[in-house]
Amino acid sequence: MSNMPVHADRLLDLGEEGCGQLVMSVMLAMRELQSGQALLVTAYDPAAPEDLAAWCRMTGNILVQGLRELPDNQFLLKKG
């Protein structure tokens, strides 16, 4: 992980939501952002890292970094 501070334009706490609902919630939140803005997602589902990475690849968005060192599973996504 880099020492760059995390900047998010919006926060989204998905708790225990699983794949289908997780991806839908992220998609809806990202629609509200402008290109280049960032969304910080908190997700406890064990499959979230893979689901978010795959969603970003398919949609042209960027998974900037996974903050796995933190107590919660947080992921910074940048709108492409």
TrEMBL record:
Domain of life: Bacteria
Domain UPF0033: 12-64
Record-linked InterPro entries: TusA-like, TusA-like_sf
Name the UniProt record assigns to this protein: UPF0033 domain-containing protein
Source organism (scientific name): Dictyobacter halimunensis
